[in-house]
Amino acid sequence: MSEPSAPALKELFNAARFRQIAEDVAAVHPGFDSRRFLALSLPGLEALSLLQRLRRVTESLQATLPSNYPKALGILRKLAPRIDTGFVTLFLPDYVGLYGHDHFDDSMEALKFFTPFGSSEFGVRPFLKADLHRSLKVMERWAEDDDEQVRRLASEGCRPRLPWSFRLEALIADPEPTARILESLKADPSLYVRKSVANHLNDITKDHPGCVLERIAGWDLGNVRAAWIAKRALRSLIKAGDRGALSLLGAGRAAEVRMEEFTIAPKRVHLGEAISIGIRLASLGRQPQKLIVDYKVHYVKKSGTASAKVFKWKELRIEPGQVIELIKRQTIRDFSTRKHHAGEHRVEVMINGAVFGHGSFRLSL
Q1: Does residue 75 sit within a domain?
Q2: What share of the chain is helix, strand, coil (3-state, %, to 5)?
């Protein structure tokens, strides 16, 4: 018997959750019209997506909380600690992003307050879109905050291409306005913050790779925190074989190695099964070399054409005359972002940005 599938993420906002929110609001704001809130929020709930359900909470609260925005904000601040799931708290900054533009200072302070409960990264973006300069000035102060959640918000909130949100076209065109924030956080002690800074910089590489390379070239990469950010920030450029990015990571020269063996096993797999990729490399260089080894899978599309995706494999140092064997295992399964199709899938191994070997496997569904 197969195991039951996990509930859809949108069930975080099911009918029971809406009733709990109504109960919690009433607890911090006696007189709250719970009946009206539920009458507004529950109809047609099943057909709504996750983000539509989140927005339904926001809009239903706006219709039932006091029309005085600062007063409503005070109620929401009391409500925040009562919510037991971080993702669910996102309706709090969503409320600020939708209805707080006439109260800029109160709203920005509320976004800072709400972010430790979940994240205010989506709520701050309407303010950036409306007044980039003014909003970034506040976020520059957030980048110096003692709370890692607030520092992370400073970087994550102004990412040009933040997933699940609209793009900040002004920052896609010119990323320079966020430079002070990123410089403040370039060696942050918090891994949570460093991940955000790296992802922010990786966003910028999609449109201004030279800008990111120049910035990182000025960093002290002897600092392990800054080096960690640099490596992750340059990942898209590394996968594309960008020589400047490879050079910053110490792998700018073409690899002097020989591919002595390349194997893919099994040659035929069904969806849900795994393949193993094996290589044996021999150094041909007279000096130690840093190697960045990636592999690229050319996934067959429904049309019969292929779409390539590069995966990280290993970074290593190889000595003169040394022989190294590497094995990588990957399960071939569907994701929400990738559906597989039957056919011959080409696999290439890339070393310091250049293809050194290739093979294939045949997928059956």
Answers
A1: no
A2: 45, 20, 30
